[in-house]
Amino acid sequence: MKFLDEAKVYIRSGDGGNGCVAFRREKYIEFGGPSGGNGGRGGDVIIEVADGLNTLIDYRYQQHFKAQKGTNGMGKDRHGANGKDIVLKVPVGTQILDEDRETLIHDFTKLGERFVLAEGGNGGFGNAHFKSSTNRAPRNANPGQEGEERWIWLRLKLIADAGLVGLPNAGKSTFLSVVSAAKPKIADYPFTTLHPQLGVVDVDGREFVLADIPGLIEGAHEGAGLGDRFLGHVERCRVLLHLVDATCEHAGKAYKTVRNELMAYAGELTEKVEIVALNKIDAVDADELKKQKDRLKRAAKKTPLLISGVAGTGVKEALRALVEVIGEAPVSEKAKGAAQAEPWAPQNV
């Protein structure tokens, strides 16, 4: 199963059933009066957060969803049955956006949460409804009300306690594979990670969920690379771990590139607590390491942690720094389950 975090869907609620014009016709009853029943109500379109879902991949293969129409009224005062609702199941963290992809309709953050996106049309009244003291034999009935229809976007934003950010090939996937049971694809070329990854991290008896997104490059917020698509997955994180490659040309410039993209995408991302770490310290000599550390310290205005995901140097300290920010709030079972689920495994491309 592949990861899909965005899908366009057409929904339509059911039309109401038509009212019926009918009269009672029985032997020995000369003036039976009106007996037309009302039409049934159309079905609603409901979005529900379901357990066990981690991706929107189901909506790649089916994009149209229509609720059932209400049944028409019938004679002998028989009212039409209501149409069945249609329920679209989505994972926790899904947002409903209007067709313009900007207007937020609803944001799902809790398991079992339901939202009526489109209400079904009301059923029409039969002629029995219009009987009065002055009109004993009405011959009119109402048609059913039409349902609502619209195109919407479903967008999934991962729910994790901490997020990994950095330039491509900064060692994020290696770090995640070392500290958790996640098995992301790892290679020595940029954009090895093409899909967000989740892992459950256990440090000093405390568990939290760590998210790794594809690397950011300059211009990511405008669509360059893969960053603009996945930056939303760190919006819900409480703390960011910013990894900078010690083997890059200039650690300070690399840090500022990512920070500028975070600010350009959404200003609130830059307000999150950030822990800065210089990664791959085992791949450079002592002099180069000191230069890169000083450059990063000037750019970040804080002393960076020195770590190596491969050698394990400083990894424990970085995790403890994350836990200190996350606090004692327990990791949700949903987030933990999502991180351990099979669908998050990397895909071969």
Automatic annotation (TrEMBL):
UniProt keyword Coiled coil, yes or no: no
Cofactor(s) the record lists: Mg(2+)
What GO terms describe the biological role, i.e. biological process, of this protein?
ribosome biogenesis
Summarize where GTP binds, as residue positions: 166-173, 191-195, 212-215, 279-282, 308-310
What keywords would UniProt list here? Cytoplasm, GTP-binding, Hydrolase, Magnesium, Metal-binding, Nucleotide-binding
Tell me the enzyme class. Answer: hydrolase
Domain OBG-type G span(s) in chain numbering: 160-327
Q: Where is the Obg domain?
A: 1-159
State where the protein is found. Answer: Cytoplasm
Give the top-rank taxon of the lineage listed in the UniProt record for this protein: Bacteria
The enzyme's E.C. designation: 3.6.5.-
Q: Does the keyword Protein biosynthesis apply?
A: no
In the record, what terms sit under GO molecular function? GTP binding; GTPase activity; magnesium ion binding; ribosome binding
Q: Name one Pfam family in it.
A: GTP1_OBG
Give the CC-aspect GO terms: cytoplasm
State the similarity comment.
Belongs to the TRAFAC class OBG-HflX-like GTPase superfamily. OBG GTPase family.
Q: What does this protein do?
A: An essential GTPase which binds GTP, GDP and possibly (p)ppGpp with moderate affinity, with high nucleotide exchange rates and a fairly low GTP hydrolysis rate. Plays a role in control of the cell cycle, stress response, ribosome biogenesis and in those bacteria that undergo differentiation, in morphogenesis control.
Assembly mode: Monomer.
Entry-linked HAMAP family: GTPase_Obg
Q: What is this protein called?
A: GTPase Obg
According to its UniProt entry, this protein's organism is: Rhodopseudomonas rhenobacensis
Which gene is the coding source of this polypeptide chain? obg
